[in-house]
Design goal:
With 95 residues, this protein is of the alpha+beta class. It has three helices and five strands.
Length: 95
């Protein structure tokens, strides 16, 4: 019996709207305790928002789309911490 493969669900970047699979996007999560962090695994529990690049992350911060998507008010420290975690993960992935 042949196994039927499910179609991969696509997510949208909150800044530019491009659609891609979960593995191609970067996830930022607001956990149940209210803490906001970069989600390197893409599987952390909580409300998530996806961006496709560091440029789109910066645009989402500038336009407050990240705050709206996560339904939270983020501080400058939150933005800086997430950006540095994201940059480290992207650098690690590219070598």
């Amino acid at each position: 019996m042949a196994q039927v493969q499910k179609p991969k669900r696509e997510r949208s970047c909150i800044a530019c709207g491009c659609k891609a699979t979960k593995g191609e996007l970067v996830r930022i999560v607001r956990r149940s305790d209210g803490a906001v962090a970069f989600d390197a695994t893409g599987k952390a529990a909580g409300r998530g928002a996806y961006v496709c690049s560091e440029a789109c992350f910066e645009k989402a911060v500038r336009t407050k789309r990240l705050d709206r998507a996560l339904r939270a008010s983020l501080t400058e420290e939150d933005y800086e911490r997430i950006a540095s975690d994201m940059a480290g993960a992207i650098r690690g992935a590219t070598g």
